[in-house]
Design goal:
tRNA-2-methylthio-N(6)-dimethylallyladenosine(37) synthase activity, Transcription Regulator spoIIAA, rSAM_horseshoe, 603 residues, alpha/beta, 18% strand, five-stranded mixed beta barrel
């Protein structure tokens, strides 16, 4: 039996009534949903132009006293605007365990975790880290407990990545390892349940269940609210799955639970999905269409993180700087923001809503001592107002991720990136003029469909010309469903891809070393993260440009408390004079403990 939960009614409110009828019919074909019938009825009442097939005729209303009474009560009830207004600010989360109304085939008790222990493993990008925190928040409210010990787990959930074939192979290998753990489970214990969450579940769907019978549940990126039900169904010995994508799910009302209690930073998801449809990318097919959280819910989450003492937040989204909050009706007529010069989109221009510059401005005002980062942006969405904010606000990091993917205009066109090499380089110059000292990072793909040796050399030359501080470079991996899969040929031999990738990595390291050596002799503000992985005598942190900084764990002056000498702790801001640099790391000696505000006099 399939059960579909309608997350909000906001998506119906903006529709023509005929669209409401069609969507409701599609939902009803998937499974019984009384709320759709009610919602369709309420929408029909609001539109006098709806023909008789969509709403009962006046004659029938007069004949049916029950209908007349019901319709009169509906007329005085809440409208769609009431739901939209209430959706803009998330409700306070109750502290006690709570469960939504169960489907008819389950009881409330069956939806409860009953102290079962959950072990979570996260693979892939920062969005998956945030998804793990969302999934755990939902399970915690249903009475599950968290464990870091695989052997004592009753439920093992893998939050997966599908961006490249290698990422998926890692999960298949992990499932093979877990198979023995499940088969050796003592009969005196509750059966071990294993679940696949996230992008791989969304991409492969039933293939996972058919290939690995030991997998009990699948949950796509928009189905985490359904985890308690899926686990309850699995308890009966059946496999359970929900891989439906949503047009409006943002988990705005779910406060993620930090998976690392000692963390000094956190990820805050501000939007989900992507509309760019780059020809190589699987993301639109695994995470759905682009939709943004209400600004109010984001600000509330950042405030709570500040109150918890965290010193850095990273705003997350697949296309983070195309953020557009349309939940506030009064802003829906605002003009669209201009794209970066020379850039275009693969979709029709969007109008209205509160844009990324507004959100970045509001977030940066919450706590002047909290660093603000954002990732991953698209180069097309960098209007001057965003660059100006980064330059002016001390707590917005002077670091921009600017994915290029290739240095060849011909390959960029095949990738459907919406810009040429020349437009990209012009944007680089504009950013560096607007934000002096900015650190840049980028993504590159080696061996995309049809890439010639000349195309590859153009990418090499772009790496030399720009001199990125940080780089993420990969060999191309064709993904099913993408435009490249259907229209292009993966014609570059694997050995050629790997050779080109190695050449790109070598050039990147050479140029990054040159760029990072400019920090030698300078004083950098560093947010301390904890001990260095390579030496217990050293500490590790990151500077404003997101470069790793290593320094000795020694006593230093506390500039915030004159005369006091202290050792740096995770979450402290310290000043470090840089003495050496490599392509990935800066090293130096610590000067003093300080604050973000006071550090501007030194850096």
């Amino acid at each position: 039996m399939s059960v579909i939960r309608l997350q909000t009614v906001g998506s119906f409110s903006a529709m023509h009534p005929f669209q409401c009828v069609l969507r409701a019919r599609r939902c009803l074909r998937r499974g019984p949903l009384a709320s759709v019938s009610w919602l369709l009825l309420r929408t029909c009442r609001a539109h006098s132009s709806v023909p008789s097939f969509a709403c009962p005729s006046p004659q029938r209303q007069q004949e049916d006293g029950v209908w007349k009474d019901f319709s009169s009560r509906l007329a005085t009830g809440p409208t769609f605007q009431d739901f939209l207004r209430s959706a803009s600010v998330p409700p306070e989360q109750p502290s006690s365990s709570e469960v939504e109304d169960p489907p008819p085939y389950l009881t409330v008790d069956e939806l409860l975790g009953r102290q079962r222990r959950v072990y979570l493993e996260t693979y892939g990008c920062q969005m998956n880290v945030n998804d793990t925190e969302i999934a755990w928040s939902i399970l915690q409210k249903s009475g599950y407990l968290r464990t870091s010990n695989l052997q004592e787990a009753d439920v093992i959930l893998l939050v997966t990545c599908s961006i490249r074939e290698k990422a998926e192979q890692t999960i298949w290998n992990r499932l093979h390892q877990l198979k023995s753990l499940k088969s050796k489970r003592l009969r005196s214990r509750v059966p071990l349940r294993i679940g696949i969450l996230g992008c791989m579940a969304e991409r492969l769907k039933e293939e996972i269940l058919n290939r690995e019978k030991m997998v009990d549940i699948l949950a796509g990126p928009d189905a985490y609210r359904d985890l308690p039900r899926l686990l309850a169904v699995a308890e009966s010995g059946q496999q359970a799955a929900n891989v439906l994508l949503s047009l409006d799910e943002t988990y705005a009302d779910v406060m993620p639970v930090q998976t690392s209690p000692s963390a000094t930073s956190a990820f805050v998801s501000i939007m989900r999905g992507c509309d760019n449809m780059c020809s190589y990318c699987i993301v639109p097919f695994t995470r759905g269409r682009e939709r943004s959280r209400p600004v109010a819910s984001i600000l509330e989450e950042v405030r709570k993180l500040s109150e918890q003492g965290l010193k850095e937040v990273t705003l997350l989204g697949q296309n983070v700087n195309s953020f557009r909050d349309n939940s506030e009706v009064q802003f829906n007529n605002a003009v669209s923001t201009n794209l970066s010069r020379g850039f275009s989109t693969n979709y029709k221009a969007k109008q209205g809503g509160l844009r990324f510059a507004h959100l970045l401005d509001q977030v940066s005002r919450i706590d002047p001592e909290m660093r603000i980062r954002f990732t991953s942006p698209h180069p097309k969405d960098f209007p001057d107002e965003v660059l100006q904010l980064i330059r002016e606000r001390d707590n917005i990091c002077k670091q921009i991720h600017l994915p290029a993917q290739s240095g060849s205009s011909r390959v960029l066109e095949a990738m459907r990136r919406g810009y040429s090499r020349e437009a990209y380089v012009e944007l680089i110059h504009h950013i560096r003029e607007s934000i002096p000292g900015v650190s840049l990072s980028s993504d590159f793909i080696a061996g995309f469909c049809g890439e010639t040796e000349e195309d590859h050399l153009q990418t090499v030359s772009l790496l030399r010309e720009v001199q990125y501080n940080i780089g993420f470079l990969f060999a191309y991996s064709m993904r099913q469903k993408t435009r490249a899969y259907h229209r292009l040929k993966d014609d570059i031999p694997e050995e050629v891809k790997l050779r080109r990738l190695e050449e790109l990595i070598t050039v990147f390291r050479e140029e990054a070393t040159k760029a990072n050596k400019s920090f030698v002799g300078c004083t950098q503000l560093v947010l301390v993260e904890g001990p260095s992985k390579r030496s217990a005598a050293d500490l590790c942190g990151r500077n404003d440009g997101n470069l790793k900084v290593i320094f000795a764990d020694v006593e230093m002056e506390d500039a915030t408390d004159s005369g006091l000498r202290v050792r740096a702790q995770p979450g402290d801001y310290v000043l470090v004079k840089i003495t050496s640099a490599s392509s990935q790391t800066l090293k130096g000696h610590v000067l003093c403990k300080t604050t973000l505000k006071d550090s501007t006099a030194y850096c």
